[in-house]
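Tokens for Vitamin B12 ABC transporter, B12-binding component BtuF. Go.
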Amino acid sequence: MRALQCFLPFTPKVVAGVCVRGASTVMLMLTQPTIVLLLLALLALQATAEPQVVSTALCADQMVVALVDSEHILALSPQARDNRLSAVVEQAKALPSLPPAAEALVFANADVVVGMTGSETQTLILMEQLGVRVLRLEAPNHFTAIARLIRIFSTTLGASARGEGLAVALAKRWAAAKAMRTAAPRPPLAAYYRPDGGSAGHGTFVDVVLGAAGFENLATALGYHGWGRLDLETLTMNPPEGIVAAFFHPQHRDTLSRSLLHRFSHHPIFRTLWRHVPVLEVPGSMITCASPVLTDVVEYLARKRSSLRVYQP
């Protein structure tokens, strides 16, 4: 919110002054008793108006777009327009983007700068030293943590009602997905993969998504924790009933890239499995961050779950 600056020199009976906000100038001729009411009104206006916000990180972009009206978003991060990673590409097209550099953020003149814990640390510290309010969002790894983050973030921005509405709506959708899960006779075994062989075990939001959609995560079943790789030997010895694949872009669906990044997914063992079991492809942009968008992923996977069958190599 741009500050409303008023210059009101007192005289015995009348106050003649000027108020300036941005490019607008208002001449005032007021009696002294009125000036008290004016100042109180100005203070109330500045206290209740929504702040102007800048986001500096990809995952912060998603929370800002979900909880802040576009007219109060001064800028998103440059990654917000990357359709391989960002779930808010369409919204970002209508908004400026700024590099997470102190100079750019200072000139943006934001009331609040939103980043992620552990990201752009020095820049965010500098902004705090300059008197700008900085919000650092934690990376949640469970739906309850996402809902808690939504409530905290929205309250901080003065949009608690909006945040509460979003949190409640998401909770209802998660409950519906859970009901679909309990109706299944058993959870099918699924392996989550990125093109480089990366997977996700216990303690990751991907593991929570698979469980919420009614799957048993192969990596978790084998005792894996956190983010890591699920090697081909393990995959061969423990064939899943399906693959949940992320970041496999359209040009890689059939031929699979021979680049170093995709060397794992080009291996004959993986390609054989890819051809013989259902592959549920999730756009990388939808599973990059632990955000409200994960609810869409859960619902999609829950609908596709019935198509899985056991592969016998």
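Residues 1-30, 35-39, 41-48, 252-257 have pLDDT under 50 and may be disordered.
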